[in-house]
Amino acid sequence: MKQENTAPLRVGIAGLGRLGKRHAEQLARHTPGARLVAACSPVAEELDWARETLGVPRLYADYAELLADPEIDAVVLVTPTTLHADQTSAALRAGKHVFVEKPLSLDVATCEAVEAVARDYPDQVAMVGFVRRFDPSYARAKAAIDAGQLGRPFLVRSQTCDQNDPAGFFVRFAPSSGGIFMDCSVHDIDLARWMLGNPKAVRAFASGTIALHPGLTDCGDVDNGLAIVEFEGGQRAMFYASRTLPHGHETTTEVIGTTGTVQIGFGAHADRTEFRNAAGVQHTALPDFFARFEDAFRLEMEAFVAACRGEIAPPLTLSDATEATRIGQAITESLRSGLPVAIA
Amino acid sequence: MKQENTAPLRVGIAGLGRLGKRHAEQLARHTPGARLVAACSPVAEELDWARETLGVPRLYADYAELLADPEIDAVVLVTPTTLHADQTSAALRAGKHVFVEKPLSLDVATCEAVEAVARDYPDQVAMVGFVRRFDPSYARAKAAIDAGQLGRPFLVRSQTCDQNDPAGFFVRFAPSSGGIFMDCSVHDIDLARWMLGNPKAVRAFASGTIALHPGLTDCGDVDNGLAIVEFEGGQRAMFYASRTLPHGHETTTEVIGTTGTVQIGFGAHADRTEFRNAAGVQHTALPDFFARFEDAFRLEMEAFVAACRGEIAPPLTLSDATEATRIGQAITESLRSGLPVAIA
Amino acid sequence: MKQENTAPLRVGIAGLGRLGKRHAEQLARHTPGARLVAACSPVAEELDWARETLGVPRLYADYAELLADPEIDAVVLVTPTTLHADQTSAALRAGKHVFVEKPLSLDVATCEAVEAVARDYPDQVAMVGFVRRFDPSYARAKAAIDAGQLGRPFLVRSQTCDQNDPAGFFVRFAPSSGGIFMDCSVHDIDLARWMLGNPKAVRAFASGTIALHPGLTDCGDVDNGLAIVEFEGGQRAMFYASRTLPHGHETTTEVIGTTGTVQIGFGAHADRTEFRNAAGVQHTALPDFFARFEDAFRLEMEAFVAACRGEIAPPLTLSDATEATRIGQAITESLRSGLPVAIA
Amino acid sequence: MKQENTAPLRVGIAGLGRLGKRHAEQLARHTPGARLVAACSPVAEELDWARETLGVPRLYADYAELLADPEIDAVVLVTPTTLHADQTSAALRAGKHVFVEKPLSLDVATCEAVEAVARDYPDQVAMVGFVRRFDPSYARAKAAIDAGQLGRPFLVRSQTCDQNDPAGFFVRFAPSSGGIFMDCSVHDIDLARWMLGNPKAVRAFASGTIALHPGLTDCGDVDNGLAIVEFEGGQRAMFYASRTLPHGHETTTEVIGTTGTVQIGFGAHADRTEFRNAAGVQHTALPDFFARFEDAFRLEMEAFVAACRGEIAPPLTLSDATEATRIGQAITESLRSGLPVAIA
Questions:
Q1: Three-class DSSP category at B157
Q2: Is D296 helix (H, G, I), strand (E, B) or coil?
Q3: Chain C partners within 8 Å of B258 (Cβ)
Q4: Does the distance separating the beta carbons of A244 and C152 come in below 8 Å?
Q5: Which member of A278, C221, D46, D216 lies 3.0 to 4.6 Å from D16 by CB, making a disulfide possible if both were Cys?
Q6: CATH code at A50?
Q7: Is the pLDDT of residue A2 over 70?
């Protein structure tokens, strides 16, 4: 804590797509203790945006150059999933703290290889972006569980469901996304592990259907998926992921314990208004993940900065990313084979 | 209790309009311990309905004949308000138990005169139809208050709000209804007294507006009314009555105490469904007072029958009716004068 | 409809346990068009109750005698599950209409055998007690689906969850209940079929855990169960059943379609009250299935009576019972084997 | 808009109490386009806090010195109410933009005098802190009204209710607060005007009670107050203010129109969690005004900065402050006299 008012953390961001821009704005404008000093993207327009809108002074087209910049303490990776693992390892080797968006990799062995690299740099923070852990409601639920208010938690039911995009952007993205469970449910998987106390997963079963996007057939993906995961000791999790909700984004989690349960996010209220007219009583639903987790994105970045500055312990480890991938891949394999898949 | 399985209470009903039919069906089909043996109406079609639909054996066009029927133990009055008081007194004098719809009278002195008659017949039940007291949710709230769960209750906010009827039936009814406060808020007034422990009202102030029905101007009535009532000892009540809600019937009450509050009826859900679609998240609102208080109408009639059969003490007295009229008339007078009105 | 005011349906009930008493009271006191004229139970105290409390005139210890009574038009079976099938067949052969509680049988072949008997008596009603279909909220949801308001419904998520009974009554009942899915989820299975348009089920997978009642181990049952069912054409259902909810009974269903979704029963409100105090904002949850479905039990019995009197078509057939058993047994087998089970 | 990336607005803040600290942190850390360059307080510890926690470079004990600082473009006044008017005028005369917390003054003539000063400085922004206008839910409601979704809005019911503070801090503050209506309801008054389209108020009536804090008696104040305000043309408003809610802060507003209504803030949810246990279903209520309006405080300050930089028109004028005081004082006078008060 004694360092709190010392020099701010100098951050470089790589990747300036939709989510990258959010993180960049957050770091440039609203994250105490940090300064966004560099940005990296192969897209010239994105670098222009960073300079003009956020005043980012140093811009790189090449990630290696970003890492070579000695005036950078930490990098934030919002790049395509296929790059996450190598870029994380490289950042650690370059002496930088690193924040990487989820998933770390679609491959368990690759995740483990990055973990191995991280073990060589114990003084650097390596944190994966499971943003829902930073949402105040999820944090309150976790605190209640840790305080024993649910007794022994034994079941998590969790969903990540997006509003249908008639343009089907995600269909084009499907071949590289790892499938609906790796793309959406990975958050729910991480939450289930967190809420249940990090039990060892032993088996997964999945099923799914294509409700609206037949274009997914080719890559073996679905637009609505269901999964059951069994953990050692009898705990269970049930996941639902959808790309086709008609009304908005509805991401919810329920943790059921022996003496209490907690529900997070039910109702999907966009805000605190409710309208009444001839059609009845209604409220608007959240439009998307960003609207739901705006605060969490901010708090996540603040936590990363605080961890880099030594003010708090890193709230997430790369091991959390590895385990989420391990379970997500077993679910995905079950979707394809139609059989339960044992988890090593 | 020992009488429970003896002969059923023989009931005659007077008045077979919309609400009268409800009570008649209730008594004929669903009220244990009672038999609907007679009906009285000046409208031949209504008597036909009673005979054909409910199988009521004895039908009278004249109320005096109904009272003269020695095979009737109790009468249920669902007649126009102007008849309530005289018909109640006559029923008592004829040796019948009597249930009378609210309000007993628009005139306090008339209410008191009926009370005086009732005192001469202490073994007969005389009960006024403040149906909301019999709703399970109101009953639970009252029980919580009596158990001290709110500390000292000091404020009631209560409303009776109907969905707008574009045909404006109530406008034609306005000249004889006693105005919006006597017609609608009389329920809220009774509830406030009940919830607050029957304090003495000392002053009332009202205001109102005509939102949609200019035809009310002639009789000095409004379609949206607001009132504040002051009770001895500092307790307060605030009432809202509306004829013009766009979405349905929304009748709610909040009781605020020093250590807790209770809200009854918020949300106006017609049932337990909630729909989600491109317009957001919505539920249907209750269409009307009947839909909201269907159970309460049943329980009210069961309570009346149980009181007549000596199984329970009468849950309501004529004095409750008198006090509701006293407060309702003060509010109505304030609406007209624009000044606070002291309550004797 | 022309028969509506003719002689009432004469009903005999068999089985006077907790649910049997409910049906008996309903028939004796509140079901228009019916008279409860006989009761059958091997337990003398139960027959005494029927005579003394409900005034049922003819009492039988032996089911064969009940069926031999020529003054009975219909029988209502609320007997142990193992008797349902034979008693239903016998009633049909005796010329009676029959209402039988769910499940018809734990065995698919037995269900089919009863169906075969029923085909010989096409003029007699044979209806199974899937009571949730008669709940007004479920009925409204179904009507909305039939009106196309959800587009194509493709996923049902449904649960039947009871408040934990520390005494564990159901544990003693477990060896004969058929397991948690046959006992609880059979309702959800029936609803899923109904909401999805009676698709053919092709495969089931289940998992479960024992959270609080180790006594279930011996009979291979669990106190919390999860299941996924796959239907032909890509529709899916997901079920959750629990015996251990800490707060009350929470039975909910969600139907997800391509243009809308409907949720039924979320929130588990016991009534329309909400309390606020130092602990926050709270409402009481429903205590049990009876409290939740009180209206539905009434409407179900009214529908049975109306069907027997020819006023409506029977809303449920024995085939619905067979299919629910077929799916329920596949789920139960999957729970035991740990493998997906194909449905013939 | 062309100025958006020019030099940031240099802001000096006066007053560093609880709310002052919030605004200072907002300006120092999270408000794009602004820099907090100076702070003013007669309390040395507060200036120390500004320097040490926020790194504010220039600190003044004397407001005149703050105004004399040529490197300041705008001042933010979070000082005691009695100073607001003079300090606002002085800031304007010193060539600064000014943001002043509500109420501008407890005296209408004083408000009008500040307005007169402001007219001499048309190029400087003078904005009063009616923060609820900047809450996203209130903003959405207002947009819906402006889009005609409620038809003609004719009634506002609005409340500002704080959780009881057993220490009774506000009792000590009561002699200078202007009373509960000037301190709390002034927000509701401003909202009512805004939602109803700035109608002219013609009359007010108020009542109140002391539920828990007898210390208020001496200064003629109450801890629970009710008011009705009549506007020209028939619109109405009803206000409730409380210092004694048992569960938290519950600030709500309902706007009722001829074709729709909107409710804002009902339910008082602190977050998106809901707990279930043996006590039922519950959620935590908002603890205070700050928790409820955290986003609004941020957006308000961003709007002030944007107005000063010429990017938007000032969303609020001093005239809004004057009218709120005019109505608030009429309500307060009515509370004391017991009579309706005409509004000039």
A1: strand
A2: helix
A3: none
A4: no
A5: D46
A6: 3.40.50.720
A7: no
Tens-place pLDDT, residues A223-267: 999 999 999 999 999 999 999 999 999 999 999 999 999 999 999
By residue range, what is the domain housing residue A88?
9-131+297-316
pTM (2 d.p.): 0.95
Distance CA A331, CA A333 (A): 5
D18-25 and D44-54 are packed helices; what angle lies between their axes, rounded to 10 degrees?
20
Residue in chain D closest to A292 (alpha carbons) equals: D272
- Mean pLDDT confidence for A127-148: 97
Residue of A nearest to B280 (CA): A284
Same domain (yes/no): B304, B279: no
Report helix, strand or coil for A264: strand
For residues A224 and A312, membership in a common domain is answered with no
Please check whether residues D121 and D203 belong to one and the same domain: no
Among C273, C276, C283, C301, the residue to mutate for chain B (most B Cβ within 10 A)? C273
* D30: in domain: yes
Determine the distance in angstroms separating the CA of D221 from the nearest CA of chain B, rounded to an integer.
Answer: 13
Alpha helices in chain D (DSSP H): 18-25, 44-54, 63-68, 81-93, 108-119, 136-146, 169-177, 180, 186-196, 289-292, 294-308, 318-337
Predicted ipTM beyond 0.90: yes
**Helix (H), strand (E) counts: chain A:** 12, 15
Question: Which two tokens mark B82?
Answer: 């102007």
* Same domain assignment for residues D94 and D140: no
> Residue D81 in contact with residue D176, Cβ under 8 Å?
yes
Tell how far CA B13 is from the center of its chain: 17
The candidate with the shortest Cα–Cα distance to C272, out of C260, C262, C286, is C286
Give A163's strand partners: A245
Would C316 be classed as within a structural domain?
no
**D276 contacts A262? CB cut-off 8 A:** yes
- Best B6, B48, B249, B273 member to test C by mutation, with max C CBs in 10 Å, is B273
B266 touches A: beta carbon within 8 Å:
no
Where in chain A does DSSP place strands (E)?
9-14, 34-40, 58-60, 74-77, 97-101, 126-129, 153-163, 201-209, 224-231, 236-245, 252-257, 260-264, 273-277, 280-283, 341-342
pLDDT in tens, D248-276: 999 999 999 999 999 999 999 999 999 99
**Do residues C147 and C182 share a domain?**
yes
